[in-house]
Amino acid sequence: MIKRNLQEIQEMVSGWGLAPEFADTVATGVQIDSRAIEAGNLYIPIIGAKVDGHTFAEGAFSQGAAATLWQEGISGAPAGQAVITVKNTEAALQHLATAYRNQLELKIVGITGSNGKTSTKDILSGILSAAFRVHKTEGNFNSEFGMPLTILRAPKDTQVCVLEMGMRGLGQISLLSKIARPDAAIITNIGEAHIEELGSRENISIAKFEITDGLSEGGIFVYPGEEPLLMDKAKGLGLQKYTFGESAKNDFYPMEMGILEEGMSFKVPGYGADIHLPVLGKHNVMNTLAAIAVARHFGMPFEKIQEGLSTFQMSSMRMEVTKAKNGLTLINDAYNSSPTSVKATLDLLGSLKGYQKKIAVLADMLELGENSAAYHAEVGAMIDPSEVDVVFTYGPMANTYLAAASKVADTRTFEDKAELAKALSRLAGEGDIALVKGSRGMRLEDVVLSL
């Protein structure tokens, strides 16, 4: 993590006002949450919609903070303490991250997309770890606050930093890209997530494409080559590009793809051996192809790529295969949900062989705006009764799912997750499999935990 004396930090954030006696004091690490302060940290107070972090500066010092930044125009700076004044504390956090990034000899990979950001980050980090010292985004630290903190927490010997970039609207990924200055940028896909804020897939593609705004000189852009909304935009980029997708028109595409007991196997052009991916889903093969494109560009041979894939760990609640107490196999993909991701996981469920009963447990897909009912009906209608035996639904849109899934023989809706879990336990057991999928706000993992 960052370790600099306060005079250096003041210069990195274009600040002023540090008392001379604190110039050589060393700050180690950065926090924006005063409750998480450890001895020697730099505290950066952020002004939020409801809370002003400046009010907690005294508390930060009492917990051992080495210094605090202080926004110009705010009264009450702690007396007799190491205080660096800046024009804006949020911008100073971001400038500090960029300055630290520029001082390290590392490569940055930025990843965005409507779905698959975290999975691709995990897969790529696992691959690269076989050849490099890798630092990556943890949890949901992918915002204008979280991503700079991720950079500032990178050990000084980091060789590759893999950053997830999230957004809520136009301009946000552009900001993140300019902070991080990535050497490689990946867009996983363009789906319907954030359509409530942005209004259309076209606008979503514009927002995601902003990841190219901060690409370093000589940087590469990796994107799905069968997405028309990105193909035209990519033509105008004067930099190296790689595409991935299902067909042979892409630079990276799968051949001889198969489903293993708890993962996938496939081949890629230029490498004769099978690549084994220890996680289920064709969509995760696509995520892996994007990761392979970056790894190959960074000089990794396929043998090393396979070594990295054999040991990587996927973040929780993303295609997580577990067993219930009664022997029922569960695929927990309850971290988030959108029409694109639900379709992908339903395709997976339908393709799995050797199970007596296959059950889809679906909760609402959130943040879909005025067309939410239509999206839920569209997903329900695509459930193939020859591949899915039972559909359980939970949430306000549950009946919309079921009305469209009327061809499935056994469909049930629930208003209580505990009752859903009990019904699932009674219905299915050893030899059966259930996919559990819903948006984060629905907390459908409660069903998995109770089982």
Structure notes:
With 451 residues, the protein is of the alpha/beta class. The protein has 16 helices and 21 strands. The strands form five sheets. A six-stranded parallel β-sheet has the order 8-9-7-10-11-12, sandwiched between helices. A six-stranded mixed β-sheet has the order 16-17-21-18-19-20, sandwiched between helices. Helix 3 packs parallel to helix 5 (146-152). The protein is globular, with a radius of gyration of 24 Å. The model has no long low-confidence stretch (mean pLDDT 93).
Q: Which helices and strands occur, and which strands form pairs?
A:
Elements: E1 3-5, H1 6-12, E2 26-28, E3 30-31, E4 42-43, H2 57-62, E5 67-71, E6 83-86, H3 89-103, E7 107-112, H4 117-128, E8 134-136, H5 146-152, E9 160-164, H6 172-180, E10 184-187, H7 195-198, H8 201-209, E11 220-224, H9 228-235, E12 240-244, E13 255-260, E14 263-268, E15 271-277, H10 282-297, H11 302-309, E16 320-323, E17 329-333, H12 339-351, E18 358-363, H13 372-381, E19 390-394, H14 398-404, E20 410-414, H15 417-427, E21 433-437, H16 445-450
Parallel strand pairs: 3-4, 4-5, 5-6, 7-9, 7-10, 8-9, 10-11, 11-12, 17-21, 18-19, 18-21, 19-20
Antiparallel strand pairs: 1-2, 13-14, 14-15, 16-17
Provide a compact summary of the structure.
The chain has helices spanning about 5-10, 55-60, 90-105, 115-130, 145-150, 170-180, 195-200, 200-210, 230-235, 280-295, 300-310, 340-350, 370-380, 400-405, 415-425, 445-450; strands at about 5, 25-30, 30, 40-45, 65-70, 85, 105-110, 135, 160-165, 185, 220-225, 240-245, 255-260, 265-270, 270-275, 320-325, 330-335, 360-365, 390-395, 410-415, 435.
